[in-house]
Amino acid sequence: MVLGNSLSIVNATKYYKKFKAVDDVNLEVNQGEFLTILGPSGSGKTSLLKLIAGFEQLNQGAIVLNDQDISKRKPYERDIGMLFQNYALFPHMTIFDNIAYPLRLRKIPKKEVQERVEAILKLVHLEQFGSRYPEQLSGGQQQRVALARAIVFNPPLLLLDEPLGALDKQLRKKMQLEIKHIQEQIGITTVSVTHDQEEALTMSDKICVMNNGRIEQVDSPENLYKRPKNRFVAEFIGEINLIKGNVVSVDEEKAKVKVNEGFVVDIGVDSELDIKNQSMLIALRPENIQIAKEESEFHNTIKAKVIESIYVGEAFNIKTRTETGEEITAKIPANVSELPLKDKDIFLGWNCKDACLIHDETPA
Ligand code: ADP
Ligand code: MG
């Protein structure tokens, strides 16, 4: 089964009366790719998905599926597979009939319906459950039935809107991987929406971060985490320290940055940026910081005082404050031999490539 199709969203803009919910969005989803739209509540994720599905109409722009502009088509003419949070299985139909429904609607011959439903039941590991009714299945199993129903008719595209939102955390994590594996197996182009950054990082080939109807960054999960382009992305995904500094010099590999306390540190850059003498933020993940008693132990270092150490299971979060009042949190493994004491001066160190620079704009 090959279901690859590519999707382009071109200058998409959507107003609800005067309110701009989707603001000039451009986005490419490659054939077979799993793309997640990630953003806070109200950022326009569902609106964008509805535009793709055809439940809302664009004010400007186009939705292009497989090189065809589908913007003017009715939802049923787009033939897209969908799985939303309040997916409703038909309670009076067996699992088999639930999954067969979209095929029968499309007048697929009986024999083929039988074959395709059986194949997809196998794919979602429910081959024993065809004759049961939805209420006889667990939440996770029902979810898999809903997924099977969404893809059984070989749609060119699968849309997911917070499909796991109603499940508890453990089941959600399990289902994230299952959906991901099924998606990979059939290679269906998928656009998923979530406000849960962990879910986005786990499932996606590519993540599109949205804020106020606009795209902030589109990137692989790893790049997004390691190289956030701006303050919004940096703060939305994971925990991060943003340390103020002034760029002293730049070459194509690193920038020398002077932080408030007078320390000069090297920060990795991807190219020779035009940022000399600019005030920037050093974005540094807590888990990339090491702690030492002596300054000389690190290439990059800042002096700080320990405010408190918080045990979080696998690690300690060490909250510190520099002499100029900046707070920096370091995450160190819980099995370290010696925990720094409160009110003690320590040195925080990190590798040049483990931090990046972002512009020091005030968040909206
Ligand atoms: P998200 O899915 O990211 O939470 P939505 O796309 O649902 O965001 O909503 C984006 C913004 O558009 C929100 O401010 C919401 O209140 C508004 N909105 C969504 N749907 C409608 C509608 N049908 N009419 C008016 N405003 C809407
Ligand atoms: Mg939504």
What does this structure look like?
It catalyses: ATP + H2O + polyamine-[polyamine-binding protein]Side 1 = ADP + phosphate + polyamineSide 2 + [polyamine-binding protein]Side 1. The protein has 9 helices and 20 strands. With 364 residues, it is α+β, with helices and mostly antiparallel strands. It has 2 domains: 7-232, 3-Layer(aba) Sandwich (Rossmann fold), CATH 3.40.50; 240-359, OB fold (Dihydrolipoamide Acetyltransferase, E2P) (Beta Barrel), CATH 2.40.50. Strand 11 and strand 12 form a beta hairpin. The protein starts with 6 loop residues before the first strand and ends in a 5-residue tail after the last strand. The structure holds adenosine-5'-diphosphate and magnesium ion. Magnesium ion binds next to helix 1.
Terminal CA distance? 45 Å
Number of helices: 9
CATH class designation of the largest domain: Alpha Beta
Low-pLDDT regions: none
Rg computed from alpha carbons, rounded to a whole number of angstroms: 25 Å
| CATH A-level architecture of the largest domain | 3-Layer(aba) Sandwich
The sequence of SSEs as H and E is EEEHEEHEHHHEHEHEEHHEEEEEEEEEE
What share of residues are in beta strands?
Answer: 25-35%
Number of domains: 2
Could you say which overall geometry the principal axes of the C-alpha atoms support? elongated
Q: If strands are numbered along the chain, what order do they take across the biggest sheet?
A: 6-7-8-3-9-10
Given helix and strand content, the structural type is alpha+beta
Using the coordinates shown, work out and report the CATH topology of the largest domain: Rossmann fold
Look at the structure and name the CATH superfamily of the largest domain.
Answer: P-loop containing nucleotide triphosphate hydrolases
Query: Mind summarizing the main beta sheet?
Result: 6 strands, mixed
Total strand segments: 20
Helix content: 10-25%
